[in-house]
Amino acid sequence: MSKIFTADEVKKHNSRRNLWIVIRNDVYDVSSFLAEHPGGEDPLLEAAGQDATIAFDDVGHSADARAMLSKYKVGSLAKGQGCSKLKWALIALGLAIIIGIAYKRYAS
Ligand code: HEM
């Protein structure tokens, strides 16, 4: 069974020697991959201890790159702790819809 980590636990692994990132709710230890990454060290260092799903997808990584992920997987993120940008975007959308409905009722 895969290990479950909280976002706070992942955050602690944010140095060159101890570098974890999250991609689609899975936690990866990329410390040993840092020097080998074809995209250089900087993108990984910037994402250290954080959710790198959007950055990883933005690059348009090849199928080979995506297949390499499993080699570095150390576990998964606890439920409800995934990409916070996506979570806040959904909350904002939900609020906008509620306000829209309330305004329509009030205005008619
Ligand atoms: C375990 C995680 C990762 C793996 C296995 C990985 C693997 C690779 C590979 C194999 C390439 C060569 C191009 C390709 O095959 O797509 C690449 C390029 C690159 N990666 Fe990653 N990568 C990882 C994480 C990341 C993250 C988190 C970022 C950004 C925050 C990133 C940014 C880049 C960039 C900027 C390039 C160069 C793209 C280019 O030159 O066109 N990578 N990566």
Automatic annotation (TrEMBL):
Domain (Cytochrome b5 heme-binding) ranges = 2-78
Which Gene Ontology molecular-function terms are recorded?
heme binding; metal ion binding
The way this protein sits in the membrane is described as: Single-pass membrane protein
User: Which SUPFAM superfamilies does this one have?
Assistant: Cytochrome b5-like heme/steroid binding domain
A Pfam short name: Cyt-b5
Localization recorded for this chain is: Endoplasmic reticulum membrane; Microsome membrane
Q: Which UniProt keywords apply?
A: Electron transport, Endoplasmic reticulum, Heme, Iron, Membrane, Metal-binding, Microsome, Transmembrane, Transmembrane helix, Transport
Record's GO cellular component terms: endoplasmic reticulum membrane
Keyword presence, Metal-binding: yes
Which Gene3D superfamilies does this one have? Answer: Cytochrome b5-like heme/steroid binding domain
Annotated membrane-spanning segments are 86-103
Q: Which family does it belong to?
A: Belongs to the cytochrome b5 family.
What is the protein name stated in its UniProt record?
Cytochrome b5
